[in-house]
Amino acid sequence: MTKPAVTNELIYEVLKSIQAQVAIIREDVGSLKVRATSQGRMLSRIEAGFADMHGDFAELGGRMDRLESRMARVESRLSLTDA
Fold first, then answer.
1. Which run of H or E residues covers position 4?
2. Quick check: is 42 in a domain?
């Protein structure tokens, strides 16, 4: 069985095919980078939203503590506390 001759033309055709495939891969990678950046920004906004909610809950907890303290004083003044 004889092997086909490796010619410059054959090598050139193979290299052109590889170059075309690399170009497609580069486009795909560029697209993935754009999507990853977009998702990173979206995740940052979600994290900021959670941080805001955490602050809101902390503020509500402080308000509840103050209301409980005021309620205890009212109960104490009116002698409504359980013995």
1. none
2. yes
